From TrEMBL:
One GO BP: lysine biosynthetic process via diaminopimelate
Protein name: Diaminopimelate decarboxylase
PROSITE patterns in UniProt: ODR_DC_2_1 (PS00878), ODR_DC_2_2 (PS00879)
High-level lineage: Bacteria, Bacillati, Bacillota, Clostridia, Eubacteriales
The UniProt record lists the keyword Lyase: yes
Residue ranges constituting the Orn/DAP/Arg decarboxylase 2 N-terminal domain according to the UniProt record: 52-293
Amino acid sequence: MQPDTLAMDAAGYLSIAGIRVADLARRYGTPLYVFDLETLDRRLAAYRVPGLPVPVDVYYAGKAFLCTAMAGFLADRGVGLDAVSGGELFTALAGGLDAARIVFHGNVKTPLEITQAVEAGVGAVVVDSLDELGPLAQEARRQGRTVPVLVRVTPGIEAHTHAFIRTGQYDSKFGFALTGGLAEAAVQAVLAEPALRLIGLHSHIGSQILDLEPFVANVEVLMGFSRHLARRYGWWPQVLDVGGGLGVRYQPEDDPPPTAAVLEAMARAAVTGTPAGREPPRLAVEPGRSIVAEAGVTIYRIGAMKTVPGGRRYWAVDGGMGDNIRPALYQARYQALVDGRRGPPEETVTLAGRYCESGDILIQEARLPAAAVGDLVVVLGTGAYNYAMASNYNRVPRPAVVTVRNGTSRVWVEREGYSDLLRLDRPWEPW
């Protein structure tokens, strides 16, 4: 639920990677996103499991958090990328990622994005609908290329997670359902197109999953479908891309299975499901949250405190739903610490944001030590889907992103200023 290097001294002052939180706030301002590189490296290392029965390739899910420097970090570590838009693809290439290590997704790929992906030479395009097959094949022929393709299927597995981040059920907006012949029709269409080369299947069942069984069931379903395709069409997958979804410990009761156990169980299922005379497909995974969530925190400064009729105690901070929409959107739950306040929890507070919405609440009923206006609050586990979903609501500039390691800090994304809010605006002209 927090960076591995986060520490609190005897006086209650917090540090990350040996740097005082207060020093980071003074130097870079608040709100401030902070990522611990040591934690990022350790979470990535958890996906490198030796001795698995089949190879497992890692494609980080850029939607969780991506910027140019993050793309460079991934390239330096030899990790691929799951990109879901032309903007993510553009950022990845600008950061130095090899296009061949990028899997390109999207349930609606614009003509520009299809051209962009084919020109870049991405490792695979994940086909999400029959309507994109024609434009993709046409663009491949125009460029004289054969495009590697994965067909995305929905396996009918309902992971126990929030409805908004559940993607494996048959009525999902993503992919082709295995019922009714939809997925098989998509496979047939790809196999019939010379400009496309079907290399495997893709499935992603959801996010923040805390059980092992859905991941294994996903592989078993994909292997069963693959056996059917082998019997009927003589086709066998080189790769099964099983998506991401492994949860993290946002709250003490959250208990995700170890990464190695998940990979081992899925790899065994791939081997078990392979018929005689066939090679087991290699697996691909697309972790996002489990890589970056715990590596990131957000530092806020308390700007106001009040107790309202009925007894609710509010601490209002200088950020909120503009830099973390997840509590309002998903009812996501976070934990927080107060810098310089080591004592036991004395207050039950609602940590509220500064935005003009009653729903701008970061944490409901947090138990925290007594604090004062001007104190710093550190919200834990904000590395995933915070900066990625940030907005300029209320015309508030977005925070900076800073990374820390071994007592040093670097800016990965500059703090926006008011001039940035006007950069794309055009002045009024009477008409």
